[in-house]
Amino acid sequence: MSTEELCPLCERPLAEPMVKHHLIPPSKGGKDMPTVVLHKICQEKINAVFELMEQKRYYHTMERIMENEEMQKFVKWLKKKDPEFYEKTKSKK
Ligand SMILES: [Zn+2]
Question: What's the pLDDT score for residue 93?
Answer without folding.
Answer: 54
